[in-house]
TrEMBL record:
Pathway: Carotenoid biosynthesis. Belongs to the phytoene/squalene synthase family. Gene3D superfamilies: Farnesyl Diphosphate Synthase. One of its GO terms (biological process) is carotenoid biosynthetic process. The keyword GTP-binding does not apply. SUPFAM superfamilies: Terpenoid synthases. It is an enzyme of class 2 (transferase). This is 15-cis-phytoene synthase. It catalyses: 2 (2E,6E,10E)-geranylgeranyl diphosphate = 15-cis-phytoene + 2 diphosphate. One of its GO terms (molecular function) is squalene synthase [NAD(P)H] activity. PROSITE patterns: SQUALEN_PHYTOEN_SYN_1 (PS01044), SQUALEN_PHYTOEN_SYN_2 (PS01045). Pfam families: SQS_PSY (PF00494).
Amino acid sequence: MLQLPETPRPTKKLASLEDSYEQCRQVTADYAKTFYLGTQLMSPEKRQGVWAIYVWCRLTDELVDGPQAAFTTSETLDKWEEQLESVFAGHPVDDPDVALVDTVERFGLDIQPFRDMIAGQRMDLVRDRYETFEDLHLYCYRVAGTVGLMSAQIMGVERFCDRLQAPWSPPRVLNNPVNTINKAVDLGIANQLTNILRDVGEDARRGRIYLPLEDLAAFDYTEADLFNGVIDDRWRAFMKFQIRRARKYFAQAESGIGTLQKDARWPVWSALVLYRQILDVIEQNQYDVFTRRAYVPSRRKLMSLPLAWLKSL
Ligand SMILES: CC(C)=CCC/C(C)=C/CC/C(C)=C/CC/C(C)=C/[C@@H]1[C@@H](COP(=O)(O)OP(=O)(O)O)[C@]1(C)CC/C=C(\C)CC/C=C(\C)CCC=C(C)C
Ligand SMILES: [Mn+2]
């Protein structure tokens, strides 16, 4: 059969690898100061890898949350997913993809967490309520647990115990990768549950409730109460319950950090300790997440870094 030459794809001149990583660095530094600080403690390869996935996650989130969100449809996400497939096939489409293609190859990243994150953004297009915690858990896995999976592949798992041991004792296997992976997902979920509690008021103003309706009902608190920002004993008890649940996920994640490669431990401990403090601030604000944004002051953030360092030893 006659083989026609392939129609050449219109080629756009893309950034060089160096410029692409520099763009990713810049975006991370501007949008995620704490994560960026954490990446400074990692090896240059890991640091660049985290910037590349940060930018991809940010762009994905922007599709449903950014200024153009009103124009995002299921087809927009289909296109975004095609672009992702192209990146994983080694063909960058836009400037930040150049760095991502390199990161994917360097670390042998798996595409599934990226696809799952897009599936999470699809949920945002069609849902604004979650009946059960199980429903919400799936959403949290998709938009945040996946970040844990992507990051853990870059940070790398240290399989053997590196504490001081008697020279004659066999190396102790500290963990299996499956365990680390679960804990990486737990940290993402803990962060997302915290995000949700912090943003209750903001989400309600957009007509969205990311709290399990079954839990609201169990505390006899109605959607109308939520939209009216009612803070009473029912709300306080409800929030205590949700905060306890988020802390449980942080606690589960803790034991995974020691299984990561050394240079990743302090950054991840810092991320955990800093994010978890948002829950403390919500408590200090007497659970008012309607009119006050739980914000951890920079001084307090800085003061927790030595504690994170101690924990990472
Ligand atoms: C074994 C073990 C414990 C390993 C550690 C694995 C690890 C590093 C886990 C961290 C996971 C993490 C940082 C999750 C972020 C979760 C999160 C906040 C997701 C947000 C989703 C959407 O939420 P929403 O729209 O409600 O929120 P906004 O109002 O828009 O903020 C996200 C916004 C999804 C997109 C996520 C990001 C942009 C953050 C990506 C971050 C990284 C790649 C850096 C991770 C690196 C370090 C050093 C922690
Ligand atoms: Mn968002």
